[in-house]
Amino acid sequence: MNQLDSSLRELKTRTGLSLAGLAxxxxxxxxxxxxxxxxxxxxxxxxxxxxxxxAGEPEGRCVALWEIAEAETSGRGASEAPPLASAxxxxxxxxxxxxxxxxxxxxxxxxxRGVAALAALGSxxxxxxxxxxxxLLLLPHHSEPASTLPSSTTGVGPLCYESTCAGKDPQTMHxxxxxxxxxxHETATGAWLQLRHSRECGASWLRVWGARIGDRVELTVxxxxxxxxxxxxxxxxxxxTYIYTFMAATRPGTVARxxxxxxxxxxxxxxxxxxxxxxxx
Length: 281
Prior knowledge:
Elements: H1 2-15, H2 19-25, H3 30-37, H4 45-55, H5 60-74, H6 76-80, H7 105-138, H8 150-153, E1 180-186, E2 192-198, E3 203-209, E4 216-221, E5 227-232, H9 236-239, E6 243-244, E7 248-249, E8 255-261, E9 274-279
Antiparallel strand pairs: 1-2, 2-3, 3-6, 3-7, 4-5, 4-8, 8-9
């Protein structure tokens, strides 16, 4: 996240605001901004967009850097992003081999030189193409770049709807490509809870970031019987990126209650459960 961190710090300097000033003008606390700017926690996309707005900076470039960082920390980058550079020659598909007469002895040395030249040329082409890709990624854009979520990178739409989405991962089912945020709250420990809903999938889930190992969240959706989805931060990788509950089928008018329970620790917030309500629109 080094490139994203330095860009965010540069934007903060441009705003002329202190951490307290950023907290006063955005939904994020002073301690949250301190973690985001020092690279200790991946900021939410909305925080990046808010900082760009305050600095008068088109958000395209910073959002692109955020999406790269989010893909890397969530583990999707390794499986989705193509390598940017390669020292091996470019491979070009060819048709079935055609028998070639055995070369004359005096032509063998020339043939070896030709193969070596082609390999070197292929390596140079690969590096040039990689450089162009990197340059395009870092150029400022006035519109948002394509999302790194599976639904937009593969061109495949949602794979479920309402009851068939129940208990499934929103990203795996391609429901997280263009969701709406129904409610968002910061907890006493600095963790953020975001109630998300996909109209295309007819389902809702809870997204959490800035949490610590052992923190637990719970989503309860009204109904007979009520539907409950839970998730827990299990390791440092999950603590440094987003975690998601599985989905619950929801329709407009559904009431969803989401709760946060910090891991057992000493202090004023030890074991204090916080709950909030949201309505599907």
